[in-house]
Design goal:
Blueprint: H1 3-21, E1 44-50, E2 56-62, H2 64-75
Antiparallel strand pairs: 1-2
């Protein structure tokens, strides 16, 4: 995992949450998923597929309550 590829995603995600959801987020240290990893840390995950010079998937995960609050804020309810 190269920092030059991962850091832009982290910065963009933090910016999106701040600009569109109005919250400051804390993130954990990114890690590479291995097939032997069976523990799921969060309820909701979003996948971003990559193609081109770099291929793979970036996963953004959060607890269900966080996802519900985020959607509620976005739709204005």
């Amino acid at each position: 995992m190269k920092v030059k590829y991962i850091n832009p995603f982290i910065q963009a995600a933090v910016s999106v949450f701040k600009d569109f959801v109005g919250v400051d987020v804390n993130h954990k240290t990114p890690f590479l998923y291995k097939e032997s990893d069976t523990e799921v840390s969060y309820d909701i995950s979003g996948l971003i597929g990559l193609a081109g010079e770099v291929t793979g998937v970036v996963v953004v995960s959060m607890p269900k309550l966080t996802a519900l609050k985020m959607v509620s804020y976005i739709i204005g309810s």
